[in-house]
Amino acid sequence: MKTWLHAISLILLLLGLPFAGIWMSGHDIAAYLEFPPRTQYVEHAPFSWPVFIGLATIILAVMLPFIIHIMRSRKEIRSMRVDERIRHPFPWWGWVSLVLGAAFWVLAWSRFPWFEPLQLYTFSPLWICYIVSINAFTFRRTGHCLMTHDTRFFLVLFALSAAFWWFFEYLNRFVQNWYYVGCDHFTPLQYFVMATLPFSTVLPAVLSTEEWLACHPGCHAGLDRFHPLRRSPSSRGGVLLLAASSTGLLLIGVFPNQLYPLVWVAPLLLLVALNRVTHRPPFFPELEQGDWRRVFRFALASLICGFFWELWNWHSLAKWIYTVPYVHRFQLFEMPLLGYAGYLPFGLECAVIAELIRHRKSGHAGVVSSGA
Q1: Which residues contact 57 (CB under 8 A, 6 or more apart)?
Q2: What is the pLDDT of residues 92-151, one digit of tens each?
C-alpha cells in the first residue's frame, strides 16, 4: 500500500505542478493539451558559451572522479580476467536477433519503394532486436539473463515502460526540447499507438544493458570502495528537496529555457524526497558503504542506450528533432553533445521505477542490486 501511495503522489506532482504553473501564469492552456502535439509555442534561447562552459564544467566535475577511480582500479582486477572468460555458447536466439537487427537497420535508413508502407515503423523492431541481443550477450557471459530467468518481470517492464516514458513526453510539453517529424498525418489514436510501441522498449533496454554491464567488472572497477554517502536520520533534507523540486516543476512551463533540465532530474529528486519524507529505506542503500557500482552501471547503461537511440533516430523517416536552449551545438547525430548528460539521471530513474514494481511483488523495501 505504501508503494502505491508513493507512486500516486509522484504521479500527481508530475502531472499537476507544471500544469498549475502555466495556468497561474496565464498561458494558453489549450496549447499544452494539444494531441498529437504539433504547435511550437516555446521560443528557445540561442546558444550561449558561458552556459555551455558552465554546464560542461559541472558535468565533468561529477563524472571525472568516477572515471579516474575506475581507470586506477582496473589494474587491480587484471588477475580476474581468467574468471571472466566466456563459458557459455552464444544462444541461437541471439544470432537471430543480431541478423534481424542488422536487416531492420538497413530498412530504417533506406528508402526502398516496396517497403514504403512500413517505413515509419522500423524503430520498435530495432529495439526489440537490441533487447534480445544484449540479453544474449549476458547469457553468453553468465548462463542466465533477465529475459530467460526473470521472464515475468521482463515482460512487465514493457507495459511499465510505455507509461513511464509518456510522463517524459508530458513534461516535454512545457519546455519543447524535442518534437517529432514524419508522423504529421497520424490521427490521435494512431499517434498514441505508434508512439506507445517504441516507448515500451525503454525500460527493458536499460535494465538489460545494466545486467550486461554487471558481468563486466572492469566497467565499474573499484567503485565498491568509493566515497560513502551518509544519510541523515532527519527528514528535514527530504522536505527541503521536495519543496525545491516541486517549485521547479511548478515553474518549468513559465521559465522553460532556464528550467528544462528538470525534465530529466525532477522525477528522481521527487522520488528521493518522497522517500525521505515518508521514512522509507533508501533506493540505493549500498551508497552508505561507498558502493557506487550499481548507480554507475545504470547511468552508463542509459547512456549506452541513449547513443543507440540517437544513432538509429538519425536517418529514420519518423524521428525526433531537438531544440535545447543555450547548449544546442556540437551535435552527435540529432542530439547536442551536452544533451547526453540527461541520460545519466534518467538511468537512475529507470532503476528506481523498475525496482519499485519488483519489490511491490516481492514484498521487500528498498532497491536491491541486480548484480555485483
Answers
A1: none
A2: 999 999 999 999 999 999 999 999 999 999 999 999 999 999 999 999 999 999 999 999
Whether 175 is in a domain gets the answer yes
DSSP assignments along 37-103, one per residue: -------PPPP-HHHHHHHHHHHHHHHHHHHHHHHHHGGGGGGGGGGGS--SPPPHHHHHHHHHHHH
Residue 346 makes CB contacts below 8 A (sequence gap 6+) with: 264, 302, 306
Q: Is residue 319 part of a domain?
A: yes
Mean pLDDT, range 352-370, rounded to an integer: 62
Distance, in Å, from the CA atom of 30 to the CA atom of 153, rounded to the nearest integer, reads 38
- CA-to-CA distance for 320 and 313, rounded, in angstroms? 7
Region for 207 from its dihedrals, namely left if φ exceeds 0, alpha if ψ lies in -120 to 50, beta otherwise: alpha
Q: Which helix (H) or strand (E) holds 178?
A: strand 178-181
Residue 351, pLDDT above cutoff 60: yes
Whether residue 220 lies inside any domain: the answer is yes
Beta bridge partners of 322: 178
- Confidence band (pLDDT; 50, 70, 90) for 371? very low
pLDDT at position 370 over 70: no
The 10s digit of each residue's pLDDT in 197-250 is 999 999 999 999 999 999 998 899 999 999 998 877 777 888 999 999 999 999
Question: What is the number of alpha carbons within 13 Å of residue 219 lying toward its C-beta?
Answer: 20
Tally of domains in the chain:
1
What residues does 321 pair with on adjacent strands?
A: 179
In a domain, 45, yes or no: no
**Distance from the Cα of residue 139 to its chain's centroid:** 23
Q: Which helix (H) or strand (E) holds 172?
A: helix 151-172
Average pLDDT over every residue of 305-311: 97
pLDDT computed for residue 2 by the predictor: 60
Distances (CA, A) of 240 to 17, 234, 273, 277, 304: 17, 11, 8, 10, 33
Domain membership of residue 69 as a residue range: 62-74+86-231+282-362
Q: Which of 162, 226, 166 is nearest to 197 (CA)?
A: 162
Cα–Cα distance, 180 to 14 (Å, whole number): 22
Of the candidates 193, 174, 173, the residue with the CA atom closest to the CA atom of residue 183? 193
